[in-house]
Amino acid sequence: VQLQASGGGLVQTGGSLRLSCAASGRSLNGYAMGWFRQASGKEREFVAGFNRSGGSASADSVKGRFTATRDTARRTMYLQMNDLKPEDTAVYYCAADRSVIASNIRTQSAYDYWGQGTLVTVSS
Fold first, then answer.
1. Which residues are within 8 A (CB) of 89 and not within 5 positions of it... i.e. 6 or more apart?
2. Which residues lie closer than 8 Å to 32 by C-beta, 6 or more apart?
3. Distance CA 70, CA 54 (A)
């Protein structure tokens, strides 16, 4: 599976962006997928994602502001980000793996396939 993340950019505080993660090579059916982000000088952290059955999860820091969706027919996952804050500034990565169990969807080391990252910058 090859993943291509896109949609990042510069936005003001309170603005919105939608990230996309397009997969090529095979269907996403049965794959866990996740969005992670890494701010400068910090460790990569889970943002939102889906387990293999389609159940979703998100980090407390983005609940109510970010929504992850996926279109398995189009092999694409999205991250709608609303009410962006300066602390959301980071490189955002998408990841996928067929063997991630539900309890591990927030664990970056559980994923084998990663996109290249897209930079989101929120100005104050």
1. 39, 120, 121, 122
2. 49, 50, 51, 52, 96, 97, 98, 100, 102, 104, 105, 110, 111
3. 9
The answer to whether residue 80 scores a pLDDT higher than 90 is yes
The residues near 65 (Cβ < 8 Å, ≥ 6 apart) are: 81, 82, 83, 84
Confidence at residue 112, expressed as pLDDT on a 0 to 100 scale = 95
Query: What does the pLDDT look like over 82-123, one tens digit per residue?
Result: 999 999 999 999 999 999 988 899 999 999 999 999 999 999
- The encoded tokens of residue 45 equal 């952290």
Separation of CA 88 from chain center: 12
